[in-house]
Amino acid sequence: MANLARLFQRLLVSPIARDVRHTTARPISLESLEILLNKPKPGGGRSFRRIVHFPAEYTVEPLRVTNLAGRDPETGRVIAKGIGGGIKHKYHWIKWVRDGPSEGPPQTEKVIAVIHDGCRTAKVALVAVGNEMKYILATENMKAGDLIKTSRFIPRIPVRANEGDAYPLGALQTGTQIHCLEKFPGQHCHMIHAAGTYGTVVRKFDDLVVVQLPSKQEFAFKQTCMATVGRVSNVEHSKTPIGSAQKNRELGNRPRSGLWQRKDGRHGRKVRRLPPMRVIPPPAEKPAKPLKLTLKL
């Protein structure tokens, strides 16, 4: 035991062991750290699906689009793995601000056409007012030739709005279905855009209006926030099956190739033999209890 203790003591005090304990890690260069750590993450308002080339001024001409296929536009690295392929579509620039007169009769606009936009789930309506044309999100029953109204005036009695009309929340009746809602007065209408969705005006108190969003959550907004009446078009979008792998590829979804393998069951359905058949025997009979007879003598 004494010899073993002496041996361990020499090992601990030896210069080799001291060097190993006090060695400093080699510094990593900033460039290698950038390569490893500064990879963009999906989200944060960037989908890595396409880049729309917006001009300086608003136009109804279809805009040119660059498909990214899930790659970062600067480095070319794959960020979102589920994106790839897809049919090239032109982008129709939606004018998210529905502006109208704050006093007097509402502004009347005419729907020129209702078209399908490949870059979004809902349909798009081309609307004309005066010498101006713009795109808005089409409602469920909107068709060419319809007249829609836009106003920022809040009357004493709530208005009876038709589908496609845009009014402040304070001017609408309780129970009205709405979409394209402003978060704050004067901002773009950037809430409730997806196909078939709608919000509901639930109740009013003070100068606030409570709206139930498609997520069934209720939020209170200023009564001067603009909203469009009706449900967003293309209601059957969420219920329509894709139908084939080719259609899914056309939508821009990259297949998960190499993961699902039928024969060996790797990451997929497990193809195994059925267990051997076994015969279940009947339950064993209980042994008869011995009968004990006693005789009093």
Mean pLDDT metric:
84
Strand order of the largest sheet: 7-12-8-9-10-11
- In which range does the helix fraction lie? 10-25%
Task: Please compute the radius of gyration using only Cα atoms.
Answer: 35 Å
> What general outline do the C-alpha atoms trace?
extended
Extract low-pLDDT stretches: 13-23
Task: Provide a brief overview of the structure.
This protein has 297 residues and is α+β, with helices and mostly antiparallel strands.
Strand and helix layout:
Layout: H1 2-13, H2 15-22, H3 30-37, E1 50-52, E2 65-67, E3 107-116, E4 123-129, E5 132-137, E6 147-150, E7 166-168, E8 177-179, E9 199-205, E10 208-212, E11 218-222, E12 226-229, H4 245-250
Antiparallel strand pairs: 1-2, 3-4, 3-6, 4-5, 7-12, 8-9, 8-12, 9-10, 10-11
Protein described:
- The chain is of the alpha+beta class and 297 residues long.
- The chain has four helices and twelve strands.
- β4 and β5 form a beta hairpin.
- It is extended, with a radius of gyration of 35 Å.
- The termini are far apart.
- Mean pLDDT is 84; it is low at 13-23.
Pick out its properties.
alpha+beta, six-stranded antiparallel beta sheet, four-stranded antiparallel beta sheet, 4 helices, 20% strand, extended
